[in-house]
Structures are given as C-alpha cells and as structure tokens.
C-alpha cells in the first residue's frame, strides 16, 4: 500500500478544494510539522543527534562501562549542551545546537517560517467569509458571494492530490465565485527563483485532477516583510530566463500550456505590517463577533512578536 493510500485510510481525504476541513486539523498539521522535522525539537537533525550520542558512547573512558553508567555520562553531556545553547533573550539570533524544550519553542515561535505557516492555516480557516472577501478584493475582482475553504500544506492536501512537484503554503478557494488564492508566506525573505511558474504548474495540475473548476481565477499573493518591487511581467521574465539557462532541470516549467496559465495569473503582495493595519481597520469599521475580534487581535499580536519585526 502506497504512503498516500495509508494516509487517506487513517486520516481521510478531500476530493475538491471546496471541501471544508475543520480548523482543528491545523493542530494535527502542527504535529506533522514537528514529527517530520525533529530538528525543530532536538535542535539538530535526528541523524546528527544519533551520531553525537554514538560518538560520546565510544569515548575511551566509557569502554567496559555498564549501560547505566554510559547513560549517566551521556545524559550529563546532553544537559551541558542544552545549557550552552539556551538563549535568555527572546530575539537572540543563536538558533542552532542541541536544545531543551524551552529553547526549541523560542526558535519555532519567533524564527520559523514553517511554524508561521501553521499559525496562518488555523487563522485563515477561522476567518469569516466577509473578512476574506474584503482581504482579497484588494487584489482581484470576483463576485463576493459564497463561502471560502482554506487548505494548508498538510498531509491531507498532499496525499489527497498526490501533488509532488511543489509545496505550497496555503490556498483559499471560493467555489461559487470560482476564484483561488495561493497565499505564499515569507518571514522576511525573497520569493524563490521559480516560484511563480511552480504555482502555475500546481494550478494546471489541480485543474487536471478536478480539484478546481475550469475558468477558476487565480491570484498569487505574497505576504512578507517587504512588498514585491517588480511587476508581474518582470518577475515572470526573470523566472523564464532562469529556467532557460538550465533547460535540463526546468524544461517542465517552460511548456506553452503552462505559460498560458501565467498569462491569466494575477500577482500581488502585501507586508505583514499592512496586514496588521488591514485587520485593525476591519475591526474598527465592522461589527464583528467577539470570537472574530479575538482571532484578529491574537493573530496581530503573534505577527508583531516575530523576530523579523524586531531585528
């Protein structure tokens, strides 16, 4: 049985982007993130961690010692390493090395883009349709009716679509309005050199397998520390030129069919600070329930606490 089949059998699946998933799935996605990236908990990769333990266990002074004696020495060395790597300042840039639980949480909470992605998944899943309509209407025209479903880069999405060509951050989809928004999140980094073309490849694939409908409008929205400084055509031209320079690797991104998707794609960007301001305006100008008020205020506080907002 393939991995995708095993996953769907245990956790279920979706067959279309209009399918709603509960916001609590965001919590299991957070667990997936930590399970698949144990270095976030250990401080170094699992392979490095195991190698370190083996190296310590083979020290000359531990030869012929009992398992209990070896375990005691290694435990002491681990505690020492954890003590050395722990930072007592929230935004200390030291984020490597074997760490204890407190230091692991500091690193992911304030420095990890992947952790931010999972926070955003939960946030977007809980946002009202009214909020999402107004947020996206800043960047693309669509009929502001119907309901939104959102999907993070989770096992449910990956194994339902069996999309292996790329990893997205988050998708928002309104079936009635026939519009899809790919939310590409950055802490403070730049877009990848082939990112626009890869998102177009994803759009083409989702259309092919019936996860979106023909004619679906497509917005690629970058959210980061700074806004994009170039227009769509300039960004696309650079990506095409890069792919043409390495045709053996990127030929699949240079097909005419894919470039037709590019022609209809809309690209926009917003900074995290601008999103915070949008949330504040939304709260000031609309009557919202207490739950949504807490949702928006809490997400603003989380963004404001990230390292790139302070460094």
Helix content bin: 40-55%
In percent terms, what proportion of residues is strand?
5-15%
Mean pLDDT: 95
> What structural class do the secondary elements suggest?
alpha/beta
Terminal Cα span: 48 Å
Question: What overall geometry do the principal axes of the alpha carbons give?
Answer: globular
- The Cα radius of gyration reads 23 Å
Output the strand order for the largest sheet: 1-2-3-4-5
How would you characterize the overall build of this protein?
The protein is α/β, with parallel strands linked by helices and 311 residues long. Helix content is 54%, strand content 10%. It has 15 helices and five strands. It has helices spanning 3-11, 25-36, 39-42, 46-57, 67-85, 101-111, 113-126, 129-137, 155-161, 195-208, 232-245, 247-250, 256-264, 272-285, 290-304, and strands at residues 148-152, 170-174, 179-185, 217-224, 266-271. A five-stranded mixed sheet has the order 1-2-3-4-5, with helices on both faces. Helix 10 links the parallel strand 3 (179-185) and strand 4. Helix 7 packs antiparallel against helix 15 (290-304), helix 10 packs across helix 13 and helix 14 packs antiparallel against helix 15 (290-304). The chain is globular, with a radius of gyration of 23 Å. The model has no long low-confidence stretch (mean pLDDT 95).
